[in-house]
C-alpha cells in the first residue's frame, strides 16, 4: 500500500545486483550470529533497503499447549523482521525500540513468513510495518500484523 | 499503582491457601505443556487471579549478536506473562489478542523476570500490563514494559 | 498491500450502488451525531465494507504550540477512521477497543486525510490499519500510521 | 508501581518549592499556547519531573453519538499527559513519537483526569505510561491506559 523507504545510493564500483547480494549476505551473517535465531531456525529469505522477509519452519518444539506455533515465536519473527527492514533502510546497526502486534489467527502450518516494510526513515529511527503469514498446504494466510520503531544503536531510550 | 482485577470467590470446601496452590500448580502444568516454554526454560514463579510472574534463566543460546538476551525472548516472556495474568483473572482458557512492548535497556544478566497485572476484566477480555526486569548481580532493573489484551478462547478476531 | 475484509453480501432488492450510497449516507448521519466530530469539522469522504476515509480541514484552533495540527487531532482522526472501517466490515455498532499510533512528521497543510482498511474480521472484533496523510499544496504526505482493534458494542473489556 | 524518572538537580538560588512552582507555571503557559487544548478546555493540574496530571471538564460538545466523551478526546488527553511527563523528565522540548491506548470503559461523568508517569529516560527519548480516569459522583474510575515514547524535538523519525 505504501512505498518502502527510499533506497540508498549506489556504491562506487558495484552494480545494483552486486550490492543487493552483498546486503543479503551481510544480513544472513548477522542472523547466523544470533544464537536464538539459530536455535529456532530462522532464515533470511530477502533483504533490500526498507524491506525484509524472514522464514521459519514450524517445529513441534516451537508450539504452545494447543498445538499452534507459540505466540512468542510469532512476535520474535515480527520483531526481527521489523529490525531487518529498518536496519537495511537506515544502513546502520539498529535495535527495535518498540512495537505492537495483533494476532489474527492461530499459526498452524508448515512455515511462518514475516514480511516487513519501512514506512518512514529518519536519522535516528525508522517506522516499520510487518505482516506475518502462515503457509499451510501451499496457501499463505495472514496470521499477525505488527508496527514499530527501529532505533539506531546507542540512540534508544 | 493500580489494584489487580478483583479476585474470584472461594470455592466450596477449599481454603484460600489451597486454592492458591491449586492455581499455581495448574499454571505450571500448562507451562510444562508448552514445548516452546520448555525449550527456553521458563518457570512460573507466582500466579494469582490477575497477577503472574514468570522467570527465565538467561542462557547463551537465547542471545542475539551483541550478547544481550534476544528481544524476541523478552517479548515472548511479556506476552506469556500477560496471558497468565489475564487468564487467571478471567478463570478461563485465553489467548493474547494483541500487545505492545517498549524495550528500555538491553537484557544483560542472569535472569529475566516478567511480572504482569490485570487492570480490567470483562466477560470476553482483560487488559493487562507487564513489567520485565533483568536480574544482574542481585539487582533487578526494568528492561521492558508491555500492555495488551487477553481474549477468552474462541472469542478473538 | 492487503485485501480489505470480505464484503458482505448484497441485500435483496438493492443494487450494489444503492447499497454503497446507503452505507455512506448512514455513516455521515453517525458522524453528524458525534458532537465532537462536528466541533472539529470531520467529513466522511468514503465508506465501504472494510474501508473508510475521513477528512478534516486544518484550522488554527486545532493546532498546538508549534503551529502543527495537534497530535490529539491526528489520533482522533486515526481512531475514528479505524472505527468506521471496522464497523462497516462487521456491519454492526462498534467501538474502538485499542490502537497504536506512530507519528511520522508534523501535520502541516490544508487538510488531514485518514484512510483505514480492515485486515481481519471476526464475530466479535476486527483488526484495522490506518494511514494518515496531510495534504499541502496539492501533495499528500504520510504523517501517521495506526493499527488497532474494533469491538462489537457490548463486547469490550 | 514504579518510581518516576529521576529528578533533575536543584538549580542554584532556587528552593525546591520555587522550582516546582516554576515548572508548573511553565507547563501551564505551554498548554495555554496550544489552541486545541484551549478549545477543549484542558487544565494542567500537576507537573513535576517525570509526572503530569491533566484535567478536562466533560462537555456535551466533546461527546460521541452514544453520549460518552469521544474516544478521540480520551486519546488526546493521554497523548498530552505522556508528552508533559516525558518533557518534564527530559527538561527539553519534546513531541510524542508513538503511543498505544486501551479503552477500558466509556468515559461518562463530570471530569477526565489523565495521570502520566515516566518509566525510563534517555538522552533522546523517554518511555511513559498514563492512566486515564473518569470522575463521576465523586468517584474516580479507570477508563483508559496508555504507554508511549516521547522524543526530544528534532530527533523523531
What do these coordinates show?
Four copies of one chain form a homotetramer. Chain A has 157 residues and is an alpha+beta fold. Helix content of chain A is 27%, strand content 39%. Chain A is built from three helices and six strands; from the N terminus they run ααββαββββ. Chain A has a six-stranded antiparallel β-sheet. The longest helix of chain A has 20 residues, at 71-90. The mean pLDDT of chain A is 91. The A-C interface holds A 1-2, 100, 102, 104-105, 117, 119-120, 127, 129, 131, 142, 145, 147-149 and C 1-2, 100, 102, 104-105, 117, 119-120, 127, 129, 131, 142, 145, 147-149. Strand 3 of chain A pairs antiparallel with strand 3 of chain B.
Greatest chain-chain interface?
A-B, 37 and 37 residues
Task: State the helix count of chain A.
Answer: 3
Describe the biggest sheet of chain A?
6 strands, antiparallel
Spatial ordering of strands, largest sheet of chain A = 1-2-4-5-6-3
- Contiguous low-pLDDT stretches of chain A (5 residues minimum) are none
Task: Note the overall shape of chain A.
Answer: globular
Beta-strand share of residues of chain A: 35-45%
> Fraction of residues of chain A in helices?
25-40%
Structural class label of chain A? alpha+beta
Gyration radius of chain A, to the nearest Å? 15 Å
List the quaternary state of the chains. Answer: homotetramer
The sequence of SSEs of chain A as H and E is: HHEEHEEEE
> How far is the N terminus from the C terminus of chain A?
30 Å
Mean pLDDT of chain A: 91
